[in-house]
Amino acid sequence: MADVLRAGLLGVGMMGRHHARVLREVEGVELVAIADPGGDPHGVAGGLQVLPDIDALISAGIDIAVVAVPTRFHEDAALKLAAAGVHTLVEKPIAHSLEAGQRMVEAFAGAGLVGGVGHIERFNPALQELRRRLAAGELGAVYQVATRRQGPFPSRIADVGVAKDLASHDVDLTAWVVQSDYELVFAQTAFKSGREHEDMIIITGRTESGVIVNNIVNWLSPMKERLTVVTGERGAFVADTSTGDLTFYANGTIPLEWESVSTFRGVSEGDVTRYAFPKREPLKVEHEAFRDAVLGEKTDLVTMEQGQRTLAVVEAALDSARDWDAVGL
């Protein structure tokens, strides 16, 4: 492997423009080629020529690639990159279908290449800190994870519904935070805005480790919310991924003297702590994890296998909502 990884970027739209910026900032990586059949709407190419397609990008002689085009084009680009021996990070979701995602998983595994999926919330500083504290045992046993991801509709999303676009974030981060896959889901969807895809979904589920889960996601709220609440033996963590803040609500240890309340055999209010920690840009941390994975290190990069598992959970949730029945995974 070269001392500096030669990087190619497919797609310089709303997300691709950020990848272009960050690829130029990551040590040990050099952005050498950009391709987008739609040109360069945000003017991020700099001195680079904007190539017409994935084949031209591969011909530029790249070691790694980032695929930031609409979901339905992921499979074609990824399979060509795998065949060319290029380590690849595709934006989430992994693919437009489970069959396409599985072909991508097998292509990269068969070629011995790093294949990653850009579930960027895993790299949010609040969730990174939460995961570190859970791993250290600060919460004790984990009982429940509840997430809320709500806000106005993003007009740039046209090819998938809110489940694949947004709920996939919550499915990935929930499974990662508790280090256990979903084993059962039941979901409800709503179609309120006149588009063909769902714009609201609630997923209720359980992980293999027994943690109960609730993911509330929609594109129809005038207020933007990005919250993850993890409740356990010693209290509750609240991660706000829009601000990067992490707060801990401890279970109180002082016996309550008010008799009418103390008959309830539950927890009591304890100290509340908001932690201070470095808040680095999630996309840059993700790119560093991708680089390090390519260099053979163990990182938190979302593998294609994990991205495929997340897509399977989301598809199961959509099946559940359609059939009005719980779905096992």
UniProtKB/TrEMBL annotation:
Protein name: Gfo/Idh/MocA family oxidoreductase
All residue ranges annotated as the Gfo/Idh/MocA-like oxidoreductase N-terminal domain in the record: 6-119
Keywords attached to this entry: NAD
InterPro entries: Gfo/Idh/MocA-like_OxRdtase_N (IPR000683), Gfo/Idh/MocA_Oxidoreductases (IPR051450), GFO_IDH_MocA-like_dom (IPR055170), NAD(P)-bd_dom_sf (IPR036291)
Native organism: Microbacterium soli
Occurrences of domain GFO/IDH/MocA-like oxidoreductase (ranges): 128-237
Keyword NAD found: yes
Domain of life from the UniProt record: Bacteria
A Pfam family reported for this protein in Swiss-Prot or TrEMBL: GFO_IDH_MocA
